[in-house]
Amino acid sequence: MQIKILGCSGAKSVGKSPTSFLIDNKILIDCGSVVSKLKSDFIADNIGCLLLTHSHFDHIMELPFLLELLLQDGKNPFTVFASGDSIDSLYSNIFNFESWPDLFQIAEKEGKELHLTEYTNLETISVDEYRVTPVKVNHTVTTHGFLVDDGKCSIGFTGDTYITDSFWEQCNNKKNLKAVIVDVSFPGHMHEEADITKHMSTDLISRELNKLDSKQIEILISHMKPKLIDEIKSELKKAKPDFNLTFLEDGMTLNF
Ligand SMILES: [Zn+2]
Ligand SMILES: [Zn+2]
Asked: How many Å lie between the centroid of ligand 2 and the Cα of residue 195?
């Protein structure tokens, strides 16, 4: 499985883009940085689905433009998978004809295969040869991580999360799990910010990783706040010297 890191920042600034990952050039996870990173033709020709972890702005900000592109240039069916709560939020806050038109409704009227489909916690969905399991995590709005299994290996994505158990339990059940992308937004001393915004700090993730049965799983650190990256890196390297840590950067490509 190949993962391209289109964006992995906990903020947006020059050179720092919000969350989007691309699996095998086919499946997107989150829509913080898609149309600004991939050519329109490439998107229209190759990508058939987007999995949304939650409705926070940094994870959906390019969705209106992605849908517009697909309405104009899309040749293949495209499905956005989201939780029921995220779908409600998208309709009430974005696709309400006030912030942006309801492009799903327009697509339906035009007979275009552009769908918004609800997923359910722990109910595995099939996308091509992939099996994707949404796992509810613990954030300020309804949020799901994902386990993506291509039959040979699995990769986990926590989404934005705070202390959680079921995600790590699901990871331990996946015998072919190779890597997990985790949200680490803050260094240890910013525990109050982590508590209020329900993200991981370095202290919290250090404890959370002890819930994993295997230390062989590669831990990919994402969602760091740009000004805090150096602090987060040095604290985690010190706290978890026995773990296989990779600090993600925009533009990286990882193969498993
Ligand atoms: Zn969030
Ligand atoms: Zn976020």
From this structure: 14
Which ligand places an atom closest to the C-alpha of 54?
1
Ligand nearest to the CA of 9: 2
Domains detected in the chain: 2-249 (3.60.15.10)
Q: How far is the CA of 55 from the centre of ligand 1 (A)?
A: 7
In the reported structure, the alpha carbon of residue 87 is separated from the centroid of ligand 2 by a whole-number distance in angstroms of 17
Span from the CA of 183 to the centroid of ligand 1 (angstroms): 10
Residue by residue, pLDDT tens for the chain (256 residues) are: 999 999 999 999 999 999 999 999 999 999 999 999 999 999 999 999 999 999 999 999 999 999 999 999 888 999 999 999 999 999 999 999 999 999 999 999 999 999 999 999 999 999 999 999 999 999 999 999 999 999 999 999 999 999 999 999 999 999 999 999 999 999 999 999 999 999 999 999 999 999 999 999 999 999 999 999 999 999 999 999 999 999 999 999 999 9
CB atoms within 10 A of CB 124: 13
Ligand that comes closest to the CA of residue 56: 1
Q: What is the DSSP letter of 176?
A: T
Looking at the CA of 197, which ligand is closest?
A: 1
Separation between Cα atoms, residue 136 and residue 133, nearest integer Å: 10
Backbone phi, psi, residue 108, to 5°? -65, -45
Question: Which residue, 204, 192, 213, is CA-closest to 239?
Answer: 204
pTM: 0.97
Cβ neighbourhood burial of 137 (10 Å; 0-12, 13-18, 19+) = buried
Query: 59: CA distance to ligand 2 center in Å?
Result: 6
